[in-house]
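Example 462, ligand S-adenosyl-L-homocysteine.
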Amino acid sequence: MKYFPLAINLQSQPVLVVGGGQIACKKIDSLLQANAKITVIAPALCEKLQGYVDKGELVWHEALFTDDSRTNQQLKQFILIVVATSCQSTNKIITKQAHSAGVLVNSAYKHDAGNVILPAIISRGDVVVTVSSNGQSPVITRYLKQQLEVFIPQNIDSLSRWAQSWRNTIKDKFSNSVDRQQFWGFLLSGKIKDWVLSGKFEQADSQIKQYLNKSDPITGQVFLVGSGPGDPDLLTIKALKLIQQAEVVLYDRLVSDAIMDLVPDYCERIYVGKKRSNHALPQDNINQLLVDLAKQGKRVLRLKGGDPFIFGRGGEELELLAENNISFQVVPGITAASGCSSYAGIPLTHRDYSQSVHFIAGHLKDESNTLNWPELVNPNQTLVFYMGLSQLGYITAQLISSGLAPTTPVAIIEKGTTEHQRTVISTLKDIAALAVSKNLKAPTLIIVGKVVLLQEKLAWYS
Ligand code: SAH
C-alpha cells in the first residue's frame, strides 16, 4: 500500500490551493466539506470559485505562483497544499517548494509528485467512506464510489448516532468483546436497524430494551428472499445485502449458480432441493430446519427462485416460524412471469391484445388438476403457466376443448433470463409436440395469448 489512508481534522486549518479552474474547484468542494480555511492563489477563478469568494468561504490571492513569490516561511503556515494549475512547470515548482517547506502536498496533475492523495468521498454526516486506488485509476475509484453510494443508506449517520447512544449500556451488559460484537451484528442485521433508518427511534429503543432484559438476548432471524428467475442483476438491492450478510443459506434448485456465487465463503450452504415430486428435503423438514437454525441464533437466509410468495411455498415456511415466535422478513423477487416475459420480449398485457393476466400452477399439489378451465378461456387475456411442461399436452387439450382457438399463440421460455434462455413459439394445437421435438427442459414458463405475437418484434435478449 503506497498511500496509507489517514483521516485528518482540517476544521479551520489553513489549506492552500494553487489554481482556480475546474480541477481546483473539485478539490475545494471536498475541502470545504471538512471546513478547512482555504486560500487560493490563481490569476483567475472559475465561476463557482468566484461564488465562494463572494460568500466569504475562501480567500483569493489574485496572482501567479512563481518561483520566488512565496517563501518557505509563508508556505509552512499551511497544513496542506493542493497543486492544481494547468501549467506543469508551475505545478513542479510549487510541489518542490512544498516539499522543502515540509508541508503535505497533493498534486492534482501528477499524483506521485506529491505525498498526499485526496480519495473519493462518500459523506453521510459522521460516517465517511473513502475510496482510492493509490492515485492510479480515478475511473475505478469513481465507479466504486457510485456502486457504494447505492448501498450506503442516506441516513446511516442517524444509525451511527443511535448506536453511539447505546454503546455504554451494551458495554455494561456484555463485558466480553466477542459477545458484544455478536450482539451488535445481530442488532444491525435485523429490524432494529430498519426502524432507526426510517426514524422510528422509540420502537427501536423499546425493542433493544427487551433484548437486553433477556438472559440470552441474541435470537436468530430468517430472511425469506426471492432471488428472481436467474440473472443475478435482477436481484433487489435488499436481497443482495442479505445474501452478503447471511450465516447460513437454504436454497433450492431454481437459485442460479451465478446468484450462489454471491454468497460469502464463510456462509454455510444447505441445499434443500425441489424438483417436481423429488424434493431433496421434504417441505416439513425444511420448515423445521428454519426454526431450528433460527433458535441457534443464526441469521438464516432462505433463498428462493423468483418471488417467494408466488408458487414458492413461502407462506408455508413462515407459518411455522410465526408459531415459534421467530422473527422474519420477506423480500420479494422478480417472479418468473415478469422476468421471462421481459427477457423474451412478450409484454404480459397490451391495450390491443390483453387486459388481464392469470398466473397458473400447471401442476397442483396432489397432482390432480382442478382448474376452472372455462374461466381461463378469454381471447383478451394472457395465461401464464408455471410448472406446466410435463402436463403441456393436457393443458393445451383442456384449453382447446373449453373453447380457446387452437391457433392461439403460445410461447415457452426455457431457463429465462439466464445465458441459456431459449424461446419456442407455436400455437395451442402444436406447442406440445414442438416442446418434445425441441427437447425443452425445466424450468420453463408457458405464456398463452395474443401478446406472444409481439415477441417477433420485441425480442431483445440473446
Ligand atoms: N417462486 C417462483 C416460482 C416457483 S415454481 C417464481 O416466482 O418465479 C417453479 C416454476 O417457475 C418453474 O417450473 C417454471 O415454470 C418457473 N420458472 C422459474 N424460473 C424460471 C426461469 N428462469 N425460466 C423459466 N421458468 C422459470
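Summary: The first strand starts at residue 14 and ends at 18.
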